[in-house]
């Protein structure tokens, strides 16, 4: 896409080796999820093979098209009937609302996103059209074998800048994240690493990280030249307010990519520290980040 001036929004740390099918299966997000969301947000249609060997094509449906699916005497028709029966039940809807993580946490699930289908046109009059593809995203290949995916692509921004910011405590870094978002700044990418991971990734990738800092943050902003310059200034002010120990803005595209190279090398860098390790992904409301890190 790059030669044509376009890109795919989600940008995982495994971008140099992941596949589109894998990203759909895991509903991958990556460092750009704050502004560009997850793979689910960019998936328009999915073609797949179901467990009985039948071929299906999932895409947005009008209410009439959805009702026609309910009449089909096929496995696909049975799937629509089951979902319609369950998501039309007020008690089940209440259980989903109660049991699923808050919708305000955008990276809140990898599994079956029935909550994403609950507020579509068959069930709510004025909302998005029903699209079974939303359920395929994050299902980890358990609902069908994907053969084709249609996704939305985006025009490359005019300017992209990244700030590498060091902090004297992980709590200050977490508070800085919360304040950046609270001020209405939506970075194209934002990541925090503690001192141990900062040192490990820097040793592995020679990214030029502030290894003496207790925590490090990468904040990336994109848009027009004027917009990015203003946003970088505002982020610097917020970082200083939260007692940052260093700030470095990339001076070239090569340096920006180097900032991210260390973060993307987190897994192999940890492998250098120990032969075995466990990785857990947690979803935390941004306003609670400093408290959780503490």
How is this structure best described in words?
A hairpin with a 5-residue loop joins strand 2 (43-49) and strand 3 (55-58). The two termini are 41 Å apart. Helix content is 41%, strand content 19%. A 4-stranded antiparallel beta sheet has the order 9-10-8-11, with helices on both faces. The protein is built from 14 helices and 11 strands. The relative contact order is 0.14. The model has no long low-confidence stretch (mean pLDDT 90). The protein has helices spanning 20-26, 33-36, 39-42, 63-70, 75-87, 90-99, 114-118, 133-136, 170-182, 195-205, 225-241, 253-264, 266-273, 289-293, and strands at residues 6-7, 43-49, 55-58, 60-61, 130-131, 145-151, 154-155, 159-167, 189-194, 215-223, 244-249. The protein is elongated. With 294 residues, the protein is of the alpha+beta class.
Shape: elongated
- Helix share bin: 40-55%
Strand arrangement, largest sheet? 9-10-8-11
Number of strands: 11
In short:
The protein has 14 helices and eleven strands.
Show the helix and strand layout.
Blueprint: E1 6-7, H1 20-26, H2 33-36, H3 39-42, E2 43-49, E3 55-58, E4 60-61, H4 63-70, H5 75-87, H6 90-99, H7 114-118, E5 130-131, H8 133-136, E6 145-151, E7 154-155, E8 159-167, H9 170-182, E9 189-194, H10 195-205, E10 215-223, H11 225-241, E11 244-249, H12 253-264, H13 266-273, H14 289-293
């Amino acid at each position: 896409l790059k030669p044509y001036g376009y890109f795919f929004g989600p940008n995982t740390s495994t971008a140099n080796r992941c596949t589109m099918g894998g990203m759909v299966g895991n509903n991958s997000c990556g460092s750009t999820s704050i502004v560009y969301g997850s793979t689910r947000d960019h998936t328009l249609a999915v073609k797949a093979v179901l467990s009985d060997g039948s071929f299906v094509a999932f895409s947005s449906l009008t209410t009439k098209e959805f009702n026609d699916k309910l009449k089909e005497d096929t496995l696909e028709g049975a799937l629509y009937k089951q979902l319609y029966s369950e998501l039309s039940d007020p008690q089940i809807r209440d259980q989903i609302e109660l049991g699923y993580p808050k919708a305000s946490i955008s990276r809140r699930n990898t599994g079956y996103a029935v909550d994403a289908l609950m507020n579509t046109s068959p069930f709510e009059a004025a909302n998005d059209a029903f699209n079974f593809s939303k359920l395929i995203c994050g299902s980890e290949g358990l609902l069908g074998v994907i053969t084709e995916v249609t996704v939305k692509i985006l025009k490359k921004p005019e300017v992209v800048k990244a700030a590498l910011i060091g902090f004297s405590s992980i709590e200050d870094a977490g508070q800085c994240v919360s304040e950046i978002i609270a001020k209405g700044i939506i970075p194209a990418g934002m990541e925090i690493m503690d001192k141990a991971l900062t040192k490990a990734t820097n040793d592995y990738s020679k990214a030029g990280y502030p290894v003496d800092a207790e925590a490090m943050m990468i904040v990336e902003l994109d848009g027009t030249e004027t917009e990015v310059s203003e946003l970088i200034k505002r982020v610097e002010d917020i970082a200083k307010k939260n007692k940052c120990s260093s700030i470095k803005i990339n001076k070239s595209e090569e340096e920006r990519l180097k900032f991210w190279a260390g973060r993307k090398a987190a897994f192999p860098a940890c492998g250098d520290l120990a032969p075995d390790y466990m990785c857990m992904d947690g979803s935390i409301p941004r306003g609670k980040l400093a408290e959780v890190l503490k």
